[in-house]
Task: structure prediction
Amino acid sequence: MTDATLSPTTAGQASASTDPALETYLEASREARHASYLELLRIPSISALSEHAPDCLRAAEWIAAELGRIGFDHVEVSPTGGHPVVYADWLHAPAAPTVLVYCHYDVQPVDPIELWETAPFEPFIRDGRVVGRGAADDKGQLHMHLRAFEALFATRGRLPLNIRIVFEGEEEASSEHLSGWLEANRVRLDADAVVISDTSFFEGNRPALCVGLRGLVYTQIDVTGPAQDMHSGGFGGLIENPANALARIVAALKDRDGVVQVPGFYDDVVELTRDQRHELAAMAYDGEAVRRHCDVPVLVGEAGYEPLERLGYRPTLDVNGIWGGFQGEGSKTIIPAHAHAKVSCRLVANQDPAVIFERLKAFVLSVAPPGVRVEVRLLGSSRPLVVDAGDPVAAAALEALETTFGARPYLTRSGGSIPVAEMFATQLGRAPVMLGFTNPDDHAHSPNEFMRLANYETGIRTICRFWDLVPERIR
Ligand SMILES: [Zn+2]
Result:
């Protein structure tokens, strides 16, 4: 689907809901809905900056008030030790399943502010776009859920299933307190499925359902030589140089074909099936545009795999930072005392971060030259995540997307990681369904963030349809 077919003028009609009363309500409330969207965007809820803590609280209270007004029970701005979680539920459909909905109300900082064409927290709607920090990530998507629930309550007086709301305020600041909060609130988080709305459509604004996330192992390699920097004239040729040693270690990690050389690194990787390769080949991926966007001479990667395969289905290993020795102006003839590198791996199913770390560590130690001490430390990790293709909630999401947007959604795997998704998967024992709606060119985390109004409007109708479908799929 191109942007042309997803224009704001066709959005309302193309997506006419199966429920005429709902569509009438949504049409009649359009202006008020947009005003409310902008109101939420005006609250500068930047979680990373402590001076915005009162704004985060204000955003949480604004959302809580809306949830209460719409018809939810047990609405709470729940303390976490950091920015609060907004919790609410509606559990009056005894025969229907319970779904937990996650979004986040915090946003990224706005710098570099000089690259914004307009003030980030003075949002506006123009040319079918809602522009402002958080318009897409993730206040826009949170607001879509609010308005979808509002429309269902307003037209039917009830929801077709049981809902628990968890809206976080620290997603853009590492979700530091969420895992503890989930642990402490386990009882009231019991659900048959989790839905996260914090992802985007595929290139060309084609509807997509994200069914996989890569995991992560993040390490630091510390190479230590002499007790202090030594004269390279007096000691060069006698002692090992930690920077040289580190370069040899790093060079050993991958071969020229981009294949990671750590023994056993690929042992648990689930190979792509023929069907998956066909599906990916059919997706319109513009490698040349990516090359231009990155401003690099050529795209590279593991030999034998196409770009989309390498992004979603293959693990990687990258040096994220490397330093050591003299870096000032001019020259200084030393053998540095130490050198360091941050090295991380993106993992895919079924790699286990703990196992990969041990294998990486053993390999680094085995290739380290004598004459230096080498330490490999684990700084953080998360597991890869794959949503089962047979998952009934994912199937309901796909059907709702296809019917409402009028195009068969792509099944995408993100090359990145969403720690929250992994938290839900481990703590609640089920992989979340990642039903996201923003246009892929939304400038999330960047200046001039925006959401296409067509994605927002059609997305709200998709969400309503999705809630109607889920109880039919899970009994
Ligand atoms: Zn987000």
In short: The pocket of zinc ion is lined by residues 104, 137-138, 171, 198 (CB under 6 Å). The two ends are 33 Å apart (CA to CA). The CA atoms of residues 79 and 356 lie 36 Å apart.
